[in-house]
Amino acid sequence: MLSDIAIAQQAKLRPIMEVATELELTPDEIELYGKYKAKVDLSVMKRLEDRPNGKLIYTTAITATPAGEGKTCTTIGLTQALGKLGKNVIACIREPSLGPTFGVKGGAAGGGYAQVVPMEDINLHFTGDIHAVSTAHNLLAALLDNHIAQGNELNIDPKRIVFRRVMDMNDRQLRNIVVGLGGLGDGYVREAGFDISVASEIMAILCLADDLQDLKERVGKILVAYTYDRKPIYAKDLNAQGALAVIMKDAIKPNLVQTLEGQPAFVHGGPFANIAHGNNSIIATNMALKLADYVVTEGGFAADLGAEKFFDIVHGYSGLKPDVAVIVASVRALNMHGGVAREDVAQTNLEALQKGLANLDKHVENVKKFGVPIVVAINQFPTDAPEELELVKSHCEELGVHYAVSQVVAKGGEGGIEFAETVLKVLDNEPAQFKPLYDWEQPIKTKLEILAKEIYGADGVVYAPKAERSIRDLTKLGYGNLPVCVAKTQHSISDNPNLKGAPRGWTLTISDVRPSLGAGFLVCLAGDIMTMPGLPKKPAAENVDIDADGNITGLF
After folding, report:
1. CB neighbours of 365 closer than 8 A, spacing ≥ 6?
2. What is the spatial distance between Cα 360 and Cα 367, in angstroms, rounded to a whole number?
3. Which residues contact 307 (CB under 8 A, 6 or more apart)?
4. Is 512 helix (H, G, I), strand (E, B) or coil?
5. Whole-angstrom Cα distance, residue 362 to residue 273?
6. Averaged pLDDT, 202-213
7. Is the dihedral of CA 474, 476, 478, 481 positive or negative?
């Protein structure tokens, strides 16, 4: 099969105005970014406020492995398959970060014949949303340092600054740095550091805000530092919220593109699910639910990360409730969870596959706890043996969950017809009984204990001294009633990336708790997770090139 970028470059795209017109969007509601991309004005929500919502299909997956699960391509392929069945459907996914694009992952617009296009634009600068997030974030950091350098009227303690800078690239050299070196005019010397832009609190705010005014209010609540007498300083104390909202005025509008088969797709917001809340914007999803009968969205990584954060955080701020959850699994990935090395995942090994199914079992168990019906999508690879697929199917029957084999990567929407019909059957016959896992009013440690035991399968939680201090201080300030956003490895249900399957007999370690008060949650760092990734030994960037005619190669 052709590479993803070759498939995307051969596709015949519809003018985006044609896609918008079929959604009954007016020309005044569309802002074109060339022929095939557009932003949609938020006034649409006012016009359609009385229209009933469509059905929400939430896509998640088993724990990530290098062998591949195929969550994004399954999300897009399901959208294409529903389109082939004549359904009015929209996909809602996140924007790719340049860090993974040039790092280890490559592109993130789907794969094979299940992609959103224009693929190169989406994977690169797109409409500039992530750049806007980076600029707004770093403006706030600059205003903070400038305030101290210009007299420090707020009495800010430079050693108690909690707001770091960001950039949209994997750069381990910037995790921990010293700034302000030089002469008197170069600021003051202090320790600092960078996170990746998609971990920015402003990115989280973009995805959780209802509108521009809500975004401005949330930005003003960002905790940036403490004074010498330990009083909190917020962005609004620096009079920063107006300028930051101005920078974000276009980024808050959803981006409209299309699948390879012409169905509409909103690609908006980009928080990682391992170090942030991992779901596309509430605005895009709500808009899609007004415009379509079916909306297919996804959360980052597995059900213990993106899905849990949607159910426990996004739902609380939006009221969004999935009508059905799709859990994506592949034989190759299940083999790795059964102990098979990456280079051997294509070899038939029923014993390892049986062992690896424990990971699927745990994610099915987790999603059931939220009262959402489940369809397991078995993402078929060319190397899958018939007996391997039969083992996964029979196991799903034993679990009592619906399932379907998906061939959307190789065949596009046509390869997902059976899958789509299964999802429609569940939507028609099994109403969701959705409920969050915990009450926000519970103490911080209680919420973390619930997640550790119920979702991750841990025996309990231990807290580093820094985390203990943070929990104590945040509770004293009155923020103990916020939901918790656990930042942990995506490679395991546990906080140890080397533990595959469904590990038991371990304890979750919380190293720190960082306030994201504007976003409205507390980021709890687990294990050795880092908020600024590094590049691998051979970055994907080394394979990317462009010729004299502007044709891009090597981008996944």
Report:
1. none
2. 11
3. 58, 60, 299, 325, 366, 367
4. strand
5. 18
6. 98
7. positive
Instruction: List the one residue out of 56, 62, 78 whose CA is nearest residue 418.
Output: 78
Other beta carbons less than 10 A from residue 232's beta carbon: 18
* Residue 54 confidence (pLDDT) above 80: yes
Cβ–Cβ under 8 Å, residues 409 and 379 = yes
CA distance 453 to 11: 47
pTM tops 0.85: yes
Q: In this structure, are strands 165-167 and 194-196 parallel, antiparallel, or unpaired?
A: parallel
Other C-beta atoms closer than 10 Å to the C-beta of 31 total 15
Using alpha carbons, select from 410, 478, 409, 419 the residue that is nearest to residue 443: 478
pLDDT in tens, 175-197: 999 999 999 899 999 999 999 99
Angle ∠(275,447,514) on CA atoms, nearest 5 = 40
Q: 519, 277 in Cβ contact below 8 A?
A: yes
Q: 91: which 2 tokens?
A: 């996909």
484's tokens? 């918790």
SS3 label, residue 540 = helix
Could you tell me which residues are beta bridge partners of residue 156? 227
Q: Are strands 374-379 and 324-329 parallel, antiparallel or unpaired?
A: parallel
The amino acid occupying position 27 is P
Longest Cα–Cα distance in the chain: 72
Three-state DSSP class for residue 99: helix
Residues 279-329: tens digit of each pLDDT: 999 999 999 999 999 999 999 999 999 999 999 999 999 999 999 999 999
Helix axes 71-84, 417-429, angle to 10 degrees: 80
Q: Tell me how far the alpha carbon of residue 267 is from its chain's centroid.
A: 11
* Nearest CA-CA partner of 501 in 357, 366, 318: 357
* Distance (Å) of CA 231 to CA 41, 87, 146, 156, 436: 39, 55, 19, 9, 33
Give one word for 505, left, alpha or beta, with left for phi > 0 and alpha for psi -120 to 50. left
Q: Which amino acid is at 253?
A: K
Q: Which helix (H) or strand (E) holds 288?
A: helix 282-291
Q: Going by DSSP bridges, is the β-strand pair 55-61/110-111 parallel, antiparallel, or unpaired?
A: unpaired
